[in-house]
Amino acid sequence: MNGSLIISNFLNPPVLFFFLGMIAVFVKSDLEIPPPVPKLLSLYLLFAIGFKGGVELIKSGITQEVIYTMLAAMLMACFVPVYSFFILKAKLDVYDAAAIAATYGSISAVTFITAGSFLNELGISYDGYMVAALALMESPAIIVGLILVSLFTKDQGEREFSWPEVLQEAFLNSSVFLLVGSLVIGVLTGEHGWQVLQPFAQGLFYGMLTFFLLDMGLVAARRIKDLQKTGFFLISFAILMPIVNATIGLGIAKFIGMGQGNALLFAVLCASASYIAVPAAMRLTVPEANPSLYVSTALAVTFPFNIIVGIPLYLYAINLMWS
C-alpha cells in the first residue's frame, strides 16, 4: 500500500487532534472537555451531515444507484451482526456475543465524517445520498442483536423484552432522530435551505469535527485500560472484523457500480462500529452484557484502526479493484 495515503490521512488536523487527546491522558494532563460540550458537538455533526445529505439527495434524485445503495446498506446492517455473533459465540456467552455483534453491525458517524474529510483532501468526489445509507445502517443491528439474544438464551421462555422500549431506542434515540430529521429537512428545503444554513452547516464543520475528535481521543485513551479485560481474541476481532466487513462492502459496491468515493464511504460504514447508539440500547435491554467489552473494542481499537490505517487501506483496495 502507498504509505503516502496513511501519512495524508494521519496529517489531517482532526486526526492529529484525536491523538492529542490520547497523549493528554497518557501524560496525565488535566485537559478535559466539559461534559455538555461533546454532546453539543455530536448533535451539530449529525445535523450538518444529515442536512447536507438531504440537500444532495434531492439534487441527485431517487435513481437506480441510490435504491441499490440503500438496499445494500440494509443488507449489511442485518448480515454483519448475524455472522459476527456466531464467531463471537465461540469464546463468549450469548449476551456479550450479541452485544458486540450489534455494535459491529451498526456504524460510527464520526468515522464516516473522517472518511469524507479524507476524500475532500484528495479531491475525490462522492454523493451526499450516502448520508441516507448511514442513517439506514444505524438501527437494524440493535434489533438483530436482541433477536439473537431472544433465540439463544436458555431462559428465553422467562425473558421478556419491552419491545416498545427497544424500538424506541433503536429508531428514536437522539442520534437517529436528529440525523433522519435533518436529512428530511434538507430534502424539503433543497438548495434554498442550503444557502441559508451553509455558513453554519459547512463553515463551522471542520472546526467542530476537530474539537469532537479531541474529545474522542481523551475518551479512547481512558478506555484502553479496559482492553486488558478483553484479551487477545477480542482485540484481534476488533482489528480483523473491520477489514472483513470492508472487503465484503467493497465487493457489493463494485457489483452495483458505485463510484470510488461512494465505495470508500460504504466500506467505512460496513467496517465501523457504534460506540454511542448501540451501547446505549444494550445497557437498557441486555444488562447481562459487559459494557467494557463492547465499548472498549469499538472505541479504543476499531475506531483508531479505521481512522489511521483502515480508511487509506480501503482506498488502496478501491484503486486496485476499480483500475
TrEMBL record:
The chain crosses the membrane at residues 6-27, 39-55, 67-88, 95-116, 128-149, 170-188, 200-220, 232-257, 263-281, 293-317. Keywords: Membrane, Transmembrane, Transmembrane helix. It holds the Pfam family Sbt_1. It comes from the Bacteria. This is Sodium-dependent bicarbonate transport family permease.
